[in-house]
Amino acid sequence: MAHANDPQLQSWITVPKGSDFPIQNLPFGIFSCSNKAPRPCTRIGDTVIDLRALAERSHIQSVDIEVLQQTVLNPLFALGRAKVGELRNELATLFAADNATIKNNEQPFLHDVAAVTMHLPVRVENYTDFYSSEEHATNVGTMFRGKDNALMPNWKHIPVGYHGRASSIVVSGTPVRRPNGQQLPKDAEAPVFGPSKLLDFELEMAFITCGENALGDPISMEKAEDHIIGMVLFNDWSARDIQKWEYVPLGPFLGKNFGSSVSPWVVTLDALEPFRVPGPKQEPAVLPYLAFEGAKNFDINLSVSIQPEGSDEKVVCHSNHKYLYWNMAQQLVHHTVNGCNIKTGDMYASGTISGPDETAFGSMLELTWRGTKPIAMPDGSERKFINDHDTVIMRGHCEKDGLRIGFGEVRSQVLPAHNL
Ligand code: CA
If pLDDT is split at 50, 70 and 90, which confidence band does 125 have? Predict the structure, then answer.
């Protein structure tokens, strides 16, 4: 077990009750503030810790100072899981309750989270979106093809996915603009152009890769998790009407690539180790290259809230990462089995994470069953999909034996479409 994971460990930095960020988390992010340009950081409680300043004052020995003098985490993550794990352990020692090294000289290193700006943690090299929740695939399939043909014949054999757009991935707090596009109105013969009327969220999580494989060389199941540095919350914004008209035969395009929002803290796979659980039984058996041993799902509680402008927020969904049929290792193995090469800083989203009951559906499409069951908001209005000026908030955390490790939140407000 990594030293940083010791459940007995306490920090001299205050950790509020119910915080996602005890000393056992030590996620990585990029922050800036009034007198500091963007740089790597970690977090304990509500305190952001400047890793560059620590390294420049010789408090960090486990990694070269250069990787902490960057505006993205790619160079740090390129060192690999073992090295990043060493840094995490070193930080756990520096900030442990019985260590006064920094405590007596804390001024240049520590910032209140409310006083900093968080940035996209990595330069996203590539983005792939999977479709790995059986409940989500079944719900969508039932709506569009009927119950008997809900799952396509390939679904239980292949972790289905597509290549998304890296450039439009934005960090929590960045507004998302409602897209314009072509839609085919019901019973119409020709498409119309205008703002999407069916703007939706998708509750997902994404893993970030570290290290590269040579083009042509697959990553094996044994090595797959060595290439997964950690995870973020991921809201894969979707315009259902644009998507429906455009997706045949090549799949999602402009209904998907206008924005995806991520949480700013990369929670390491190391920190999530205590929360491994077995996934759903895979029947029929997968092909040998996708077979795995041990528990490869993670028990991460997820929620989605909608906050109309000027109103309280309303929780519309509780789901869990553990429901995913295909696990991250299988996704990565499948992705590279043909020799496709990965980069440090790639993001791989899970696909919408829906659970077995109606309160665990991870999109408005499912929650309101294509708009037939609107959801009441605290201000008296109702939602079939997402309105202009609504804020959508996703949160995620693990909890077991009194230890809580969380992701914080990804929060984004929808702006009205441009008038074209
Ligand atoms: Ca998606």
Answer: very high
CATH numeric code, 29-119: 2.30.30.230
Å from CA of 89 to ligand 1 middle = 34
- What are the angstrom distances between the C-alpha of 231 and each of 96, 122, 195? 24, 12, 32
Cα separation, 134 vs 354, in Å, equals 8
Phi then psi for residue 84, to 5 deg, are -65, -35
Distance in Å, CA 377 to ligand 1 centroid: 25
**Residue 286 φ/ψ region, left for φ over 0, alpha for ψ in the -120 to 50 degree band, beta for the rest:** beta
Question: Dihedral of CA 152/154/155/160: which sign?
Answer: negative
- Name the active-site residue from 119, 136, 227, 397: 136
CA distances from residue 30 to 49, 211, 420 in whole angstroms, order as listed: 10, 20, 36
Contact 361, 300 (CB under 8 A): no
Q: How far is the CA of 204 from the centre of ligand 1 (A)?
A: 7
Ligand 1 is an ion; residues with CB less than 5 A from it: 129, 202, 236
Determine whether domain 127-415 maps to CATH 3.40.50.1000. Answer: no
Domain ranges in the chain with CATH number 2.30.30.230: 29-119
Provide the terminal-to-terminal Cα distance of the chain, rounded to the nearest Å.
56
pLDDT tens, position by position, 258-289: 999 999 999 999 999 999 999 999 999 999 99
């309280």: which residue's tokens? Answer: 312
Residue 318 falls in the annotated catalytic set: no
Q: Of 178, 316, 159, 170, give the one whose Cα is nearest residue 239.
A: 178
- CA 366, CA 203: separation in Å to the nearest integer? 11
Residue 235 CA, ligand 1 centroid: distance in Å = 8
Among candidate residues 363, 366, 391, 396, the one with its CA nearest the CA of residue 378:
391
Query: What pLDDT shows up at residue 71?
Result: 98
**Does the pLDDT of residue 2 top 80, yes or no?**
no
Contact 268, 85 (CB under 8 A): yes
What value does the mean pLDDT take over residues 103-113? 86
**In terms of Cα–Cα distance, which of 330, 121, 133, 341 is closest to 225?**
330
Domain boundaries for CATH 3.90.850.10 within the chain: 127-415
Residue 387 dihedral angles phi and psi, to the nearest 5°: -90, 160
Q: How far is 62 from 88, CA to CA, in rounded Å?
A: 9
Tell me phi and psi for residue 406, to 5 degrees: -135, 175
Q: What pLDDT score does 1 carry?
A: 56
Nearest Cα neighbor of 394 from 176, 130, 160 is 176
